[in-house]
Structures are given as C-alpha cells and as structure tokens.
Amino acid sequence: MGEAKRRKEAGLAPKTTKKETTSDNLNILARYPRLGIYLGIAFVIYLIYDVISYYNQ
Question: What is the pLDDT of residues 22-41, one digit of tens each?
Fold first, then answer.
C-alpha cells in the first residue's frame, strides 16, 4: 500500500512538494551566471591598462 492511499484513508491532505526559494541561495554565480565572464573581462582590461601604463613610464 502506497503512501498516497494511506494518507487518503487517514483523511489527510495529499503530500505537498517542498519548493526551494532562490532568495536564500548563497551561490551568487547561480543567480548571475554571466558574472564570472564580466569579472574576467574587467580583469583582462585592467591588466592591459596596467601593462600599457608600465611601459609608457
């Protein structure tokens, strides 16, 4: 006998599924998947700027 039949015979409501909230998600890359790409591009631009300013001294 399955759980659904037991719950029905006992007069209980059907089992509800738990919903995960995205607001509690601490992994920022899961919320913003392109953030790593943007940070990488910004870092490369900074490195290019730093190399150019170093050799122009």
Answer: 556 678 878 888 999 999 99
- State pTM to two decimals: 0.51
| Closest C-alpha to 15, from 23, 6, 4, 25 | 4
Domain spans of the chain, in order of start? 33-57
Selection from 31, 32, 7, 33 nearest residue 20 by Cα: 31
**CA 16 to centroid of chain Cα atoms:** 24
Kindly give, in sequence order, each residue whose CB lies less than 8 Å from that of residue 7, ignoring residues fewer than 6 positions away. 13, 14, 15
